[in-house]
């Protein structure tokens, strides 16, 4: 699928808040093409899409965005970002539990 066509599909799925279909597109096309298509949108569209993805998938897509967009979207992938769950291995309680 051409990335411009994929962008149209992603916009529809974001608008519908269809998380399962959005994740399916990511798995089907891979993070590089998904990010390339997403980069056609505004920062708000990109943020909406990333906020619908689980943190691991969000970071995977983020790595493939152009540098300027990647910097703008970093707060979505930090511990205090919206809908961001820190990995279990980074929780202080998990570290203390294993000490």
Which tags fit this structure?
99 residues; mainly alpha; 6 helices; 0% strand
Structure report:
The chain is an all-alpha fold. About 65% of the residues lie in helices and about 0% in strands. It has six helices and no strands. Helix 1 crosses helix 2.
Write a short abstract of this structure:
This protein is an all-alpha fold and 99 residues long. Helices cover 67% and strands 0% of the residues.
Question: How are the elements arranged and paired?
Answer:
Blueprint: H1 3-16, H2 19-38, H3 43-52, H4 55-62, H5 67-73, H6 92-98
Helix pairs in contact: 1-2, 2-4
Helix content: 55-70%
Mean pLDDT reading:
81
Strand content: under 5%
Multimeric organization: single chain
- The end-to-end span amounts to 49 Å
Count of β-strands: 0
């Amino acid at each position: 699928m051409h990335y411009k066509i994929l962008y149209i599909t992603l916009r529809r799925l974001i608008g519908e808040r269809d998380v399962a279909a959005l994740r399916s597109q990511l798995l089907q096309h891979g993070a590089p093409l998904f990010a390339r298509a997403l980069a056609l949108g505004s920062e708000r569209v990109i943020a909406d899409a990333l906020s619908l993805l689980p943190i691991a998938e969000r970071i995977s897509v983020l790595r493939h965005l152009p540098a300027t967009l990647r910097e703008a979207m970093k707060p979505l992938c930090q511990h205090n970002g919206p809908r961001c769950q820190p990995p279990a291995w980074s929780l202080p309680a998990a570290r203390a539990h294993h000490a």
